């Protein structure tokens, strides 16, 4: 009689192509570190200045806005210590822009790898966000040095505000990257839509101007919506950490800044969960659409 082979024990296996999403990313921290290292090395390969571009780009951007707004529109005279105010807002929006934009394109840019092997696809948006954070650090260092030279002596509350602002931006960019990155695989229009969002985000937050200018124009209910914008809260938290201490009460801090900061943290966390859910829903078509 023909013997039936015993059924193998499959307890240690999972169905191919299934995983735990962002949890798998942190389980594979070594692979994540390899992707981050690869992106950092490739970005400035063949460049004469190399890592110096991390300083040249934001400084050039700062000079353009400072001349246009600070000198020509005379904001340098109406806003105390305007260079610190401007640069502390620019480093935040640069972190958000780079993480969001590169994270949206990360799946398409890594299409050959995605089509060949299975690995947690969330690795690519997450690694792009981490690379943006690494590029943010030199800019933050320059800002901190300038602030120290202007008499900045931060206390614990100010440091916590800075960390909270950065955390909001990282979570927000990561969630939006998962959402738009997964859509961008099938509909490349998502990249153009992201560029519009970033353009609006720069001017819809007090990066280049003061929040008091907005308060004078908007009605109260619309001002609340303006302050609930997570990017606005993050920008003002960095202003509170780096800039407000040097104004000596000349400019009032936004009312309820910590409340809006915590609301922004909740909003960013919710968008991260939504982005992950949409990503997992569309993930099954990635290899086919790429």
- Quaternary structure type: single chain
Which residues sit in consecutive blocks of at least 5 with pLDDT less than 50? none
Q: Describe the biggest sheet? A: none
Q: In what range is the share of β-strand residues?
A: under 5%
Helix count, DSSP H or I runs of 4 or more residues: 14
- Overall SS class: mainly alpha
- The portion of residues assigned to helices is over 70%
Record field, number of beta strands: 0
Give the count of structural domains. Answer: 1
The SSE string, one letter per element, is: HHHHHHHHHHHHHH
Shape: globular
Q: Give Rg in angstroms.
A: 22 Å
Mean pLDDT: 83
* First-last Cα distance: 50 Å
Protein name: Transport permease protein
Main location: membrane
Keywords: Cell inner membrane, Cell membrane, Membrane, Transmembrane, Transmembrane helix, Transport
Transmembrane segments: 55-75, 82-100, 130-152, 159-180, 192-209, 257-279
């Amino acid at each position: 009689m023909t013997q039936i082979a015993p059924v193998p024990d499959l307890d240690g296996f999972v169905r191919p192509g299934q995983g735990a999403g962002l949890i798998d990313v942190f389980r594979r921290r070594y692979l994540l570190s390899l992707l981050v290292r690869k992106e950092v090395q490739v970005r400035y390969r063949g460049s004469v200045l190399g890592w110096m571009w991390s300083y040249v780009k934001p400084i050039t951007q700062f000079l353009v806005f400072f001349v246009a707004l600070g000198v020509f529109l005379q904001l340098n005279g109406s806003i105390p210590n305007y260079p610190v105010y401007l640069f502390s807002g620019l480093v935040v929006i640069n972190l958000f822009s780079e993480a969001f934009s590169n994270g949206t394109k990360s799946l398409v840019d890594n299409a050959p790898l995605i089509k060949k092997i299975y690995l947690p696809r969330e690795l690519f948006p997450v690694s792009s966000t981490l690379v943006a954070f690494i590029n943010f650090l030199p800019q933050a260092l320059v800002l901190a040095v300038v602030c120290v030279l202007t008499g900045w002596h931060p206390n614990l509350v100010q440091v916590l505000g800075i960390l909270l602002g950065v955390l909001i931006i990282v979570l927000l960019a990561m969630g939006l990257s998962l959402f738009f990155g997964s859509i961008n695989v099938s509909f490349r229009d998502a990249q153009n839509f992201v560029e519009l969002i970033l353009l609006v985000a720069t001017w819809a937050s007090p990066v280049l101007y003061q929040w008091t200018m907005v308060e004078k124009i908007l009605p109260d209910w619309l001002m609340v919506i303006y302050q609930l914008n997570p990017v606005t809260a993050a920008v003002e938290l960095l202003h509170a950490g780096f800039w407000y201490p040097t104004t000596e009460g000349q400019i009032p801090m936004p009312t309820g800044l910590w409340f809006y900061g915590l609301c922004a943290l909740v909003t960013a966390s919710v968008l991260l969960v939504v982005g992950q859910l949409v990503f997992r829903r569309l993930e099954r078509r990635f290899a086919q659409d790429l």
